[in-house]
Amino acid sequence: MSNLYNENDSSAEETGDVKILIKGGDKLSPGTNNVYAFCNHCKKDISVVYIKSEANGKELAVTETLKTNWPAVFEGRFPENDYEKCKKNNDYESCKKLLDEKKKSDKIHELWVSFLDSCTLHGFHFCFSGNPPVRRIIWTLLLLGAFALFFEKCTDSIINYFQFPFTTTTLIVYENSLVFPAVSICNYNDARFSKMNGTTVHELYFRTKIKGENVSHLLREISGEEMTKTLSEAAHRLDEMILECKWQKDSKCDHRNFTEFKNADGDVCFTFNSGKNSSALLTSSTGEDKGLRLLIDVQHYDYYFAVESAGFKVILHDQDETPVKMQGLAVSPGFTTYMELKKRKITNLPSPYRTKCGMPKLRFFDKYSKSKCFLDKLTRYVVRICKCRAWFMPGAKVGIPVCDMETSQRCMWPAWVHFEDKKLDECPVACESVEFSAQLSYARYPANAFADYLLSKETNLTGTPEENRQYLRDNLLELRIYYESLTFSDVRQVPSYDLYSLLDWLFWWGKRKTKMSNVLNENDSSAEETGDVKILIKGGDKLSPGTNNVYAFCNHCKKDISVVYIKSETNGKELAVTETLKTTWPAVFEGRFPESDYEKCKKNNDYESCKKLLDKKKNSEKIHELWVSFLNWCTLHGFHFCFSGNPPVRRVIWTLLLLGAFALFLEKCTDSIINYFQFPFTTTTLIIYEKSLAFPAVTICNYNDARLSKMNGTAVHNLYVTKMIKGGNSSHLKNNISGKEMTDILSNAAHRLDEMILECIWQKDSKCDHRNFAEFKNADGDVCFTFNSGKNSPALLTSSIGEDKGLRLLIDLQHYDYYFDVESAGFKVILHDQEETPVKMQGLAVSPGFTTYMELKKRKITNLPSPYRTNCGMPKLRFFDKYSKSKCFLDKLTRYVVEICKCRDWFMPGADEGIPVCDFETSEECMWPAWVHFEDKKLDKCPVACESVEFSAQLSYARYPANAYADLLLSKRKNLTGTPTENRQYLRDNLLELRIYYESLTYSDVRQVPSYDLYSLLGDVGGQIGLFLGASLLTLVEYLDFLAMVLFTKYKYHKE
């Protein structure tokens, strides 16, 4: 605190008494002879303030009760107060009590006034005295209304917070490579009939289930060990079932690449890529040739008679998961099943969020998953009830015995049923998991010609050719598993209303200006206008002897003052003195004030030195004044409490609070800045409802690319038979096949669309034919045809849904004319945008003998360019006008092959530029190896398109043609001479019906949106400043402004 008396006056410090005379004169109202003085800013709390009458010079001690309000003048004198009464009555105790009570009351009032001055609640100080009544009422009503809204919103916010809501975000992540899933296969038959026949277990099952006999004596004869041994020996052996295993087309695998496990239904299953004996496989390419291919013999002929369905259950799962429950995808013999993989990574929230995910420790497994938890709890329950376990359950390592047949029937199986019925498998959802799904499509396997090729190697089949083909289709299945794209969905549950969101509602961060106090007569208009103040401080016995002149100051005047006057008691002369001397009292030396540098230069009449001293002091005082003003106006909460003018404890507490707040603020700001430079984004999906939608381009590709009838007798056919079938030397044949001849042969051998399209109907009534299709060649060299390509006419629109409001095709795939190296029979159907060229075979397989229903779903995708992780782009291509990733692949492949071999494959673009087609020898020695090297070295680095349209379909099937309709069709065909059954089978081997339509007139607009841009960063930083420091970004500007003013002041006074 400042003071108005000599700091070395010990008596003043001890008693707190101050004697002051304020000069009246022209600055006071006429008729005012006596003026009360006060000392709000004295160094110590004062008990008594003395005033002195100018009229008679009498000093009078007056209580502080009069210091804040000037008493009203009544008949030329001040009214008598309680203190004067008790003094007049010489009642010392009453006077002392009055003074003590008033001192306490005034101290509380002083704290209240100080709080009003520093309170940061907007408008709060306007509600109290010192403001006009109307203003007080308005601000009181405004604040009450604001508080009512505040408490309402706070209540809603707190309720919302304790409901622990969350949102689920889905992010499409593009990767250069993906981990291939573990692939578990389980035969529907768990025990071979040939191995079960003659065993006690078989006899028990046959006599109880088939004959219905009571064979309780057999139950007691079958121990747990015998049942385990019987079922283990009767299980299918993988080395007998796996006929072929290929990884990414070229790498061979076999049964040794699988690990065995038993699922919760007691079946023996096998897992490829389990990650147990080696690290999980990675794939960096898409398409059916870049995944896993399995040819499996299901051994249908050896199925046990209790098994209803024939085939395999395929379970796609993460390497850390054990698929103990049969929840996979069914695959049937007689088909090639294509599985286009989609990966999804899921992150759930633990309690108190509704998901309540968890990863509790399990007894029989090292790592947690919900399926493992099910088997773990089931095993523990069965062991607790029955003191034994089923033969497939874990527990062998801890010595838990297997239940015998009697205990299994009497206890274990009923306990299992009770366990599932009562939902005792209460396992929490895993907090982190990886899931795989697949789009399934089918083609007939094996194709007739390929079946004959396989049968030529089999010598133990004695049936007719058709019976032998059927035997293969009853027992063989082909499985192709691959990624459709190198992307996965990152699905995360994110708290939508966390603690920081709640705090944003609970705190209103306001800024306010501090009202300045004043110590001059408010009726002194001239003082307000000029800022000049004339003050004389009485010396007397309270100041050191010899002190005649005392410098005055007015730090807390209403306006910034320009000049302070002092008046000498000796000669009454007023003298204007610079403010430089206003804050510090000179030290006492030998009973007088020491001679200062200023007095020395004045005594020596050295005007320049005096001016320099005064200017230097004025500069210093101006900076100090700026600092004091900055403290009063600074909007950083609590900052002014950290400096002098406050008790030490208060300064320490506020300093620690501000340092802690700064630490939290810097931590959160660092996190925000790091998050910003990771350039995160979210994927938003909007369902758009339209009155009509553009129908996709529909591309169909026959699995057979060359008809046997057209290839037979050609040089290419002779070369293939000599080299691939007979294994002879074919070098002389290679040299005779030029690129032009090979192109002519393959083009002539390709299926003709006008022969394959038997019916084409658009929206039930409009007929179409082969002329509505455009031809192109894909990257596998197949001749394909596109309906609604948009090249010769605008893309078709559909405004209705349902199978009658789309495209219907009846196709003869000419199965009878397949080349003998083609394994599967059917078509690949690719649904794509008109701007896209589907150069890679990644469509959906359709098989003859079925009506395939395709319910369309359209998706429009917008990706983000660099620096976001997707890094999309649309570079210019050499051979195509518009960009797509598949066009980019073919463009780069063609350029690479041409650069290496100086020629191209017959289906590649470049004919317009005169690039020749490679002859057969160049193809074998250069072009095909260059192609393999191109794919192996990942030279097709094409960015994801920034904008694209994708189509997917839900497939379902019906047998085609029905028997009666088959007979109707056969009545129109006179060239078939087989039996009715054989002719029906001929139709089912060659005909397929395709129905493509929208399931609804909607599409998904999938957009990548920056989730944390520059404005988010600024908002986050601003929020952290407001939350922890009660400031804003403009507070930083205040500090910069203060620094600029200091530098400007230094420069200004230095220049002057």
Automatic annotation (TrEMBL):
Subcellular localization, as worded in the UniProt entry? Membrane
Q: Does the keyword Ion transport apply?
A: yes
Transmembrane portions of the chain: 1025-1048
**Which InterPro entries does its entry note?**
ENaC (IPR001873)
> Which keywords fit this entry according to its UniProt record?
Ion channel, Ion transport, Membrane, Sodium, Sodium channel, Sodium transport, Transmembrane, Transmembrane helix, Transport
Q: What is its main location?
A: membrane
One of the record's GO cellular component terms = plasma membrane
Q: How does it sit in the membrane?
A: Multi-pass membrane protein
Return the Pfam families for the record.
Answer: ASC
UniProt GO molecular function: ligand-gated sodium channel activity
Q: Does the keyword Transmembrane apply?
A: yes
Q: Which family does it belong to?
A: Belongs to the amiloride-sensitive sodium channel (TC 1.A.6) family.
Spell out the protein name for this chain. Answer: Acid-sensing ion channel 1
Organism, scientific name: Stylophora pistillata
Gene that encodes the chain: asic1
